[in-house]
Design goal:
alpha+beta; two-stranded antiparallel sheet; 6 helices; globular; oxygen-dependent coproporphyrinogen oxidase
Length: about 170
């Protein structure tokens, strides 16, 4: 994002067909600046969406997200969390409905956040904080992200794999 007041939001879903067919995906938020109201609304909306499908999903998938998007060398999470899951193969119809609802929820949340913050003024100090947070995002992608590591280890298109990294990142 150009505006550092708007957080980076990550969303993806997948349906893998191999010897076992399964869904995976999730969404998480990496803000440059702390905003407890936004964090609380984000998690409340995610919990409500998950609860429509199964009351156990939110707790399970939030924990998975918190553990996956973690930087052990910094002892911190990449962002404010969200939900993450893989190998979801309980019931195709129900799993598909959950994944579709997740996509709709992402669109609604992201649109709300952008509309609320797009015209907010920001400073060079805010921008510097964004670059530092982008550094954390870069660290995670290069050191821990399974998709990035898989792509690079299997001779994938390096430019295509690395193009998801932020254009500018900084470290203190």
């Amino acid at each position: 994002m150009q505006n550092p007041k708007i957080p980076a939001m990550h969303f993806n879903t997948r349906y893998i067909c191999t010897t076992q067919n399964w869904f995976g995906g999730g969404m998480d938020v990496t803000p440059s600046m702390k905003d407890d109201n936004e964090k609380n609304k984000f998690h409340k909306t995610l919990r409500t969406m998950c609860d429509r499908h199964n009351k156990k999903y939110y707790k399970k998938y939030k924990k998975w997200c918190d553990e996956y998007f973690y930087l052990p060398h910094r002892n911190e999470t990449r962002g404010i969390g969200g939900i993450f899951f893989d190998y979801k193969k309980d019931n195709f119809e129900k799993d598909f409905n959950f994944v579709r609802d997740l996509g709709i929820t992402f669109q609604v949340l992201f649109n709300e956040i952008i509309k609320k913050k797009i015209k907010k003024k920001w400073t060079l100090k805010d921008k510097e904080m964004q670059y530092i947070k982008r550094g954390r995002y870069t660290e995670f992608n290069l050191l821990y992200d399974r998709g990035t590591k898989f792509g690079l280890q299997t001779s994938g298109n390096v430019e295509g794999i690395l193009m998801s990294l932020p254009p500018i990142a900084k470290w203190k």
